[in-house]
Specification:
The complex is a heterodimer of chains A (about 475) and B (about 100). With about 475 residues, chain A is of the alpha/beta class. Helices cover about 40% and strands about 15% of the residues of chain A. In chain A, strands 1-3-2-4-6-5-10-11-9-7-8 form an eleven-stranded mixed sheet, with helices on both faces. In chain A, strand 10 and strand 11 form a beta hairpin. The two termini of chain A are about 15 Å apart. Chain B is mainly alpha-helical. Chain B has a domain of about 40 residues. Chain B is about 40% helix and about 5% strand. Chain B is built from three helices and two strands. The chains are: A alpha/beta (about 475), B mainly alpha (about 100). The interface between A and B is large, with 68 and 52 residues.
Chain lengths: ~475, ~100
C-alpha cells in the first residue's frame, strides 16, 4: 500500500520523479485493467505530459509540493473532464464529450493532482454492484468472481488493485462507502454541501455528493481538503469554517434499534469485534436510538427515483447524447430513451413516475418527505450525546457477479445502512474492519453535518484500533 | 403488482418505449418495490413544520447576476447536438398535424 505521504517523500528525497511514479501506475493499469474493467478511459499521453510539467515545476520551486503534487488520481465517469468522454456508464452518453471541467477537477488540478483516467460505474450511478454499467461489470480485485460494490465500483477497484493511490467517487445512497467496504479500502462521503456538485452528472440532486476513495483515512482527508470549497455554480455548496481536527477523545453511538433483517451473522460478528477494539483504543461507547432508521431505505427509494425521473428527463436525444430516429418528435424521445437507458435506469424512472403521479403523490412522495425530516431529527437528537455513530457499512459480504441481478429489491437492501447519511446530509466514512472467506468487510462512522474533520479524526483513531 | 394498463401509462408518461420484456417483468418487480416503500404509511408524525431545509445555509441564494458563457463554450455545446444544420439544432416538428 503506497500512500500520498510515501510518494511525496520520494519526491522530496529525489528518489523518484513524477514521471516515474505516474508511469508506474499507468503500467499497473495496463496490466490489471483487462481483468478488472475498472477504467473506461486512460489518459496516458496527457498524464505523462502533465507529469513532465510537474517535475519541471518542482525543480523550479525548489521542491515545494502542493497538497496533491504529482499524485495520480482516477475519476468516476459521471464527473466531467473537459474535452474527454463522460459516459455515466450509459449508452445514451457513449459518444458524449464533456464541455467543461467539474469544479472538483479544477480543484484537483490547482492542488497538483494528475488525472490518469475515468472509472467504470453503475449506469448513472444507479446500482450496488457495478453490474448495470453499459460497459460491462467491474470485478473485485480480491476475487474477480465477485462484484466490487457500486456504484463507484471502478474507483474502489482502482485503489484496491494499486492502479491509483486515490480516486474520486460519488455517493447518493452509499456509492462510495459500500464499494470501499467490498474492496477493502477507505471511502469518504462528505457532508451534503461540502463539495460542489457542479460537473457531476445528477442522479438525485438532494443526496448526491462527491468524495474520495483511498488506502487510508489520511489520504482521504488530503483529497477532501483539496476538493472542498464553496462554488458559486452549486448553490448547495457551503463556505464552512471547519479545519483539520486534533481531537482525541470521542464517544461513539451504537444504534440499539438497528434494523437487522438481512444482517449477515459474520458481518455482525466483525462489527461487534470492532466495537470491542474501539473500546480498547479509548473510545467511549453509548447506546443510542434512531427510531425511524428502519424506514430509511423505503424513504430513499421514493425520493431517489422521483428525482431520477426528473433529472434524467433531459436525456431525450435532442441537445446531446445519442438519438434514435422515429416518425414524430414523441417517438424520437421514447425510442432514444428506450435504446439509450439500461433496465435499472428505466426501472427507477418508472418508479419515480409512479410515486409522483396524480393520486399517489401524497401517499408516497409527501410521506417520504415527512420521514426524511424525522430521520434527520433522530440523528440531530443522537448527536447531542455522541460524536459519531458506528454501524456496519453493508449488511452482507460481497456477493458473486450475477447473484442478485434477478431481484432488484434484494440488490437495494445492500444500501440499507448507508442511505441514512445521505438522507440526513451527514458525512460518512467506511473503513476496512475484517474479512469473511477472503473478502473484505467494512464498518462506517457517521458524523455531525459540516463537522467532517472531526469525523475524519475519529476515523483515524478507529483505523488505529483496527490495524 | 401493477396492472398492464397502468404500466403502459407510466411508460407513456416517462417517454420511454416499453419493450416486451419490460412489460412482462416490470409489473411484478415494480409492484414489489411499491409494496416495500408502502411501509412508510405506518409512520406517524411528519417532523418539524418548517420547510425541509437541512441547515440555514441551505436557504442561501446565488446573487441575481447574469452569467454569459464564452463563445467557445457555446461552440462546444453546439458540437454535441446529435443532428444539426449549421449552428442550428435539427429536430422533428414540435407541433404536429
Amino acid at each position: 500500500m503506497i500512500t500520498i505521504s510515501d510518494i511525496h517523500t520520494s519526491y522530496k528525497d529525489g528518489s523518484k520523479t513524477v514521471r516515474t511514479v505516474v508511469q508506474s501506475y499507468l503500467d499497473v493499469i495496463r496490466e490489471k485493467n483487462p481483468e478488472f474493467n475498472a477504467f473506461l478511459d486512460v489518459y496516458e499521453e496527457k498524464a505523462m505530459s502533465e507529469a513532465k510539467l510537474a517535475d519541471e515545476r518542482m525543480t523550479n520551486s525548489g521542491g515545494k509540493l502542493r497538497l496533491l503534487e504529482g499524485i495520480p488520481i482516477a475519476i468516476k465517469d459521471n464527473i466531467l473532464v473537459k474535452g474527454y468522454h463522460v459516459t455515466a456508464g450509459s449508452n445514451i452518453l457513449r459518444e458524449y464529450t464533456a464541455t467543461y471541467d467539474a469544479f472538483v477537477v479544477e480543484k484537483l488540478r490547482e492542488a497538483g493532482a494528475i488525472i490518469v483516467g475515468k472509472t467504470n460505474l453503475d449506469e448513472f450511478a444507479m446500482g450496488s454492484s457495478n453490474e448495470s454499467s453499459a460497459f460491462g461489470p467491474v470485478r473485485n480485485p480480491h476475487n474477480p468472481e465477485y462484484v466490487p460494490g457500486g456504484s463507484s465500483g471502478g474507483s474502489a477497484a482502482s485503489v484496491a488493485a494499486g492502479m491509483t493511490p486515490v480516486s474520486l467517487g460519488s455517493d447518493t445512497g452509499g456509492s462510495i462507502r459500500q464499494p470501499a467496504s467490498f474492496c477493502g479500502v477507505v471511502g469518504f462521503k462528505p457532508s451534503y454541501g461540502r463539495v460542489s456538485r457542479s460537473g457531476l452528472i445528477a442522479m438525485a440532486s438532494s443526496f448526491d455528493q462527491i468524495g474520495p476513495l483511498a488506502n487510508n483515512v489520511e489520504d482521504a482527508e488530503t483529497v477532501f481538503r483539496a476538493i472542498e470549497d464553496k462554488d458559486p455554480k452549486d448553490m448547495t455548496s457551503q463556505d464552512i469554517e471547519d479545519v483539520p481536527s486534533k481531537k482525541k477523545e470521542f464517544t461513539l453511538g451504537i444504534v440499539s434499534d438497528l434494523p437487522e433483517d438481512g444482517l449477515d451473522p459474520a458481518v455482525k460478528k466483525i462489527f461487534e469485534e470492532t466495537v470491542e477494539k474501539a473500546k480498547k483504543e479509548g473510545f467511549k461507547i453509548k447506546s443510542i436510538s434512531l427510531p425511524h432508521l428502519k424506514y430509511a431505505l423505503a424513504c430513499y427509494y421514493v425520493i431517489v427515483p422521483a428525482e431520477v425521473s426528473s433529472n434524467l428527463a433531459r436525456f431525450d436525444g435532442m441537445r446531446f447524447g445519442t438519438r434514435t430516429d422515429g416518425d414524430t418528435l414523441t417517438e424520437v424521445y421514447s425510442k432514444t430513451r428506450f435504446s439509450g437507458f439500461g433496465t435499472e435506469v428505466r426501472r427507477r424512472i418508472i418508479v419515480g413516475t409512479y410515486v409522483l403521479s396524480h393520486g399517489y403523490y401524497d401517499a408516497y412522495y409527501k410521506k417520504a418527505q415527512h420521514v426524511w425530516r424525522l430521520i434527520t431529527e433522530d440523528f440531530a437528537k443522537a448527536f447531542k450525546d455522541v460524536d459519531a455513530v458506528l454501524m456496519p457499512t453493508a449488511p452482507a459480504p460481497p456477493f458473486k457477479i450475477g447473484e442478485k441481478t434477478k431481484d432488484p429489491l434484494e440488490m437495494y437492501l445492500a444500501d440499507n445502512y448507508t442511505v441514512s447519511a445521505n438522507i440526513a446530509g451527514l458525512p460518512g466514512i467506511s473503513l476496512p474492519a475484517g474479512k469473511i472467506d477472503g473478502m473484505p468487510i467494512g464498518v462506517q462512522l457517521l458524523g455531525k453535518r459540516f463537522e467532517d474533520y472531526e469525523l475524519l479524526a475519529a476515523a483515524k483513531k478507529l483505523e488505529q484500533a483496527l490495524s | 403488482m401493477i396492472s398492464d394498463d397502468d404500466m403502459k401509462r407510466l411508460f407513456k408518461l416517462a417517454r420511454i418505449e416499453p419493450s416486451e420484456e419490460d412489460l412482462k417483468n416490470f409489473p411484478e418487480e415494480i409492484g414489489s418495490i411499491i409494496d416495500y416503500v408502502g411501509q412508510l404509511k405506518e409512520v406517524e408524525g411528519k417532523g418539524s413544520d418548517t420547510e425541509l431545509i437541512l441547515s440555514e445555509k441551505d436557504a442561501e441564494l446565488r446573487p441575481d447576476k447574469e452569467m454569459i458563457p464564452s463563445s467557445s463554450d457555446a461552440d462546444a455545446l453546439i458540437n454535441e447536438f446529435p443532428e444539426k444544420v449549421g449552428r442550428l439544432l435539427k429536430s422533428k416538428k414540435v407541433f404536429e398535424g
